[in-house]
Design a protein that fits this description.
Length: 94
């Protein structure tokens, strides 16, 4: 088991019961697996605002230890103990 910290902002915290941060003890997994773990175990409403059929919904920025996930392999990145993973929605109504 590894411990990771997950942050939500830009409105995503509302989908997770208004929690801005989760501290999780999880098995080793990729970011893709973590996204679906969050959907299955922690998401409380409107899954379509967090995931699409095959992954994270477009318009959500993901940072791992303040680094854009695009620079470290996107959803193939293997989550490490003590990682801080931030999900930031850039989608807003208007």
């Amino acid at each position: 088991m590894i411990q990771v910290f997950v942050d939500f902002s830009g409105g995503l915290e509302d989908l997770f019961g208004r929690q801005k941060e989760l501290q999780l003890n999880i098995e080793e997994m990729s970011l893709r697996q973590l996204v679906f773990h969050l959907k299955d175990k922690h998401l409380q409403m409107k899954p379509e605002l967090f995931v699409t059929g095959d992954g994270l919904r477009p318009g959500i920025i993901v940072l791992v230890n303040d680094t854009d996930w695009e620079l470290i392999g996107k959803d193939l990145y293997q989550v490490q103990g003590q990682d801080r993973i931030s999900f930031i929605s850039t989608l807003h109504g208007g």
